[in-house]
Amino acid sequence: MSGVVVGYVASPEGRAALDTGIAEARLRGARLVVVNTSRGDALADDRYLVGEELQALQAELDGLDVDAELRQPQSWEDVADDLDAIADEVDADLIVIGLRRRSAVGKLILGSAASRILLTAHHAVLAVKA
Q1: Among 31, 48, 69, 116, which is least packed by CB within 10 angstroms?
Q2: Which of 63, 37, 32 is nearest to 49 (CA)?
Q3: 3-class DSSP state of 123
């Protein structure tokens, strides 16, 4: 079975990526792998889910009509490398990420994590806005 990997953070952009990833997994009959990463210090990284937020996301994934799992790697690697490695592991057809709205100058820069994912991933990447 192929997979859809979603880069998820608790934000409107992360929610848009998750909703799109769920829809793509359904459409493709694929496994959904939601990845919430930390740069190695989960206690200092407010994008890394813990407690009730983690439980709520896991409960949502458990209630889906697709095969879904949540992964929380803690590494010092780049998020682009984490997503690409997991996409390789699960034979993913697609990586889904959320993008923040940016100013005209910000659009030129895009953002370090998003641009690295878009430019270096070995898989198709779908970038969505909230």
Answers
A1: 69
A2: 37
A3: coil
Provide the token pair at 123.
């898989």
Per-residue model confidence as pLDDT tens digits over 92-122: 999 999 987 655 545 455 456 777 888 888 8
- 123 with 84: CB under 8 angstroms? yes
How far apart, in Å, are the Cα atoms of 78 and each of 9, 96, 114?
Answer: 15, 16, 11
Question: What is the β-pairing status of strands 3-7 and 31-35?
Answer: parallel
Alpha carbon separation from 76 to 40, 41, 52, 99 (Å, rounded): 6, 9, 25, 22
CA distance 80 to 11: 18
How much is the pTM? 0.85
Task: At 45, give phi and psi (nearest 5°).
Answer: -105, 105
Q: Which two tokens stand for residue 129?
A: 């806005």
DSSP percent split of the chain into helix, strand, coil, nearest 5: 40, 25, 35
